[in-house]
Amino acid sequence: MQLLPMIEKMVSFQTVAGNRPEIDKCLQYIQDVLQNNAVKVDICRFENASPVIFARNEDVSHFDVLVLGHLDVVPAKDEMFKARLDGDKLYGRGTLDMKSFAAVAINSMDYVAQKKLPLKFGFILSTDEEVGSASLEAFLKENPDLKADIVLDNDVGGDITKIIARCKNPVYVKLTARGKAAHGSMPWDGLDANEQLFKTWQNIRKIYPAYSLQTGKPQDTWVDTLHFAIIKGGEVTNIISGYAEAMLDFRLTEKSSVDDLCKNLEKCMADGVTFEVQYQSIPVMTDENSSAVTAYKKLAESVLGQKIEFEYIGGATDARALYARGSTVIMHSGTGDGMHADGEYVDIKSVEQIADIQIKFLEKLAEAK
Description:
2 domains; Alpha-Beta Plaits; 369 residues; 29% strand; nine-stranded mixed sheet; four-stranded antiparallel sheet; 31% helix; 9 helices; alpha+beta; Aminopeptidase; 19 strands
């Protein structure tokens, strides 16, 4: 398969999460690409979630390898939905995140089918990853027995010389502060919910310090982090706030549990302030010495002609859902920059290299069968 024309076509679909007509066009395009290859392709639809496209060479629930990714993109100007090649750089919305690597998954599916590799192989592409991945959650809920020995996750774009070995656990916590409203000229008659929220904030920061451009990057970034994502309090200037709230985004390493986090937060609450964990997941930990990871890394180094390093990141991955079902997750993607920005691009050579690595890895697994 020719990757570049396929990527250019996929970029042309304005698959911003929620734009169902454009998402449907993209899904239909992928289905059409694979229709003559004896590949089973389902566009799975859900009542309260965006669609998912699921392609596989065998109709089974336990796969040797699954590729996981997404087709939705963040909003952009219209001109960004026309891919532009400048040297080795392909510019456009979704070139890095992650339509180029969705094309790699389609290419691998085509190759496995054409060569009749003795692997149970498939890919799952969701369409709302940028706004929470409800589609993947709905798909996995409808397929409770679905699992894979190995999951290839190409949604970690940025540097082909890095394999992501660990991702932190995202935990979202809501703080609610309830005080007593009073006139702004008589604060002694009220209890300022804003002040109580800020006191709690200060207490939390004693345990989870702040990092920024001013503090600089810590020497060890594999630490628990927190940022205050949303803060709301007060209605008008001359009234003491009786209510305030904040949303907190924690990223926990495998050394920290949600129970430990809750115990820490309980110590930090000022009068009138409570907390609620609204979302939690799990960290993803790849065994760097496993046979699958070692084989993949060796093949990747052979294709690139250089050493590859393992890296740990604070971001989360949708692959955690299949990791929880026992999969070995290999997180590796191409080189590029400008993810979610106006200048988003991918190094097209790196996309071709990821495709080459993926096929060589699948061939090696098939030989071992």
